[in-house]
Amino acid sequence: MLTAGGKLEQARRARDPRFDGRFFIGVRTTGVYCRPVCRVKMPRAENVTFFDSAAAASEAGYRPCLRCRPELAPGTPAWRGPSTTVTRALRLINNGALDDGSVVVLCERLGVTALHLDRSFTNHLGASPKTVAQTRCLQFAKKLIDETSLGMTDIALSSGYKSIRRFNKHFVQTYSRSPNSLRKTRPAAAKGIELKISFREPYDFQSLLEFYRVRAVPGVENVTVDNALSDNGLLDNAPKSYERSFVLDGKSGHLSVSKLDDQLVCVVQGGSTRSLMQIMSKVRSMFDVDAVPEEINSVLCEDRIMRKLVRKRPGLRLPGAFDEFEIAVRAIVGQQVSVKGATTVMGRIADQYGVQTEYGRVFPSAETLADLDPATLPMPLKRATAIKLLAVAVADGELEFDADEQVLYDQMIAIPGIGPWTAQYVCLRALSNPDSFLHGDLVIRKVAEKILGVSSEKELINTAQAWRPWRGYAGMHLWRASADPIVLK
Description:
- The protein is of the alpha+beta class.
- It has 4 domains: 6-72, DNA Methylphosphotriester Repair Domain (3-Layer(aba) Sandwich), CATH 3.40.10; 84-182, Homeodomain-like (Arc Repressor Mutant, subunit A, Orthogonal Bundle); 194-284, DNA-3-methyladenine glycosylase AlkA, N-terminal domain (TATA-Binding Protein); 324-481, Orthogonal Bundle (Endonuclease III, domain 1).
- It contains 24 helices and 11 strands.
- The chain has helices spanning 6-14, 54-59, 84-94, 97-100, 103-110, 114-125, 129-147, 152-158, 164-175, 179-182, 205-215, 227-231, 276-286, 293-300, 304-312, 324-333, 339-353, 366-369, 381-395, 405-413, 420-430, 442-451, 457-464, 471-481; strands spanning 24-27, 32-34, 48-51, 63-64, 193-198, 221-225, 240-248, 251-260, 263-270, 355-357, 360-362.
- The protein has a 5-stranded antiparallel β-sheet with strand order 5-9-8-7-6. A 4-stranded mixed β-sheet has the order 3-1-2-4. Strands 10-11 form a two-stranded antiparallel ribbon.
- β8 and β9 (263-270) form a beta hairpin.
- α20 runs antiparallel to α21.
- The protein starts with 5 loop residues before the first helix and ends in an 8-residue tail after the last helix.
């Protein structure tokens, strides 16, 4: 639990959007908890309590505000605290670890006792792992009620509940009313399921799209441009969207992500409704919507030169991964070749080994590539063999992308043909670690030498210590600067 007063009280009184999702306000006189941006009549300071998370407010007995809808707040970054155990546990919970399993099983995967995990969660989030998982499920269910035309049974199963009975019971316990009573009007059925995702400003959506555009796997991914606006000269940089096909829970589908005002809009066609929460978790990671620009930029701007890059792109975000295995293959393919060349090779692998669905081609699974003949891949044999060995390790369960970062890094470099750069790139994108820094990347080193005056990898590592724990963002700023002749002057 956070203490009242000071910066949080100022943020509450100002309804400061920069703090939306970073803390929640419990009002003792009403028993309701709200976002800092809630427009209800301002409660008196002596009647409020600050909480680290929505789960903490829920565990304390407060119910969600129906006006500001806490489930719409930008998320809390999993990397917010110094505990690697909490970080990994949150990542596993977001992937549904407690939807199907127990806290005991989760602790076994983490290698800690249930008591240690509970204490760690209480210290960092103010709530137990079980409450965090339950709040996640309930918030997603509330979102589906408000934004889709799905029936209540589909909503319950899509949100991680094992039965409609459990869903109804939890909902009534939290809101003191039934789920149906909150659906005043059922949204009109549309082509696909449309869900909105909040983020904190500033948000550089275009830079993310450009990153994905040049790396999009042909046939699997695509970044579209509104040609009508471009052709009419209405916009120099026309709105774009990211699209991809997928297979989850044995069902194929297609998704698109675009930006509308201060939200992202994700449209899902096909697929299984039970995969919706997993899809949204992946999209949130891909587009780094839970980042807190104020915290990141305040650290990076302490460096005089980095300050110049940050001010040019204050909303720069980290690219994540929809399919971690696909990204790992991409990292191997990208060794010592251009981005364009690697994209071409990825397209050939997808075309040769992927699966064509009614929604598009899907990148091959680890099980598929584990059986390939490395000689059939359009690349040097050593690299092709590394892909096969990686696929075998993932298919056999020996290498998991939800592992601790150091464990994943060590497992990656233990595979012949995979070096530090490749492993670091995978950690950056597959784990969304904001402190992963590609100090061996040739582009980053060249830009660093040009604008930072560091000529060796060791110097760059030492310089980057001042950017922790946001070295990943610093690396993205350096990457972007490589294509900016003004910055490099």
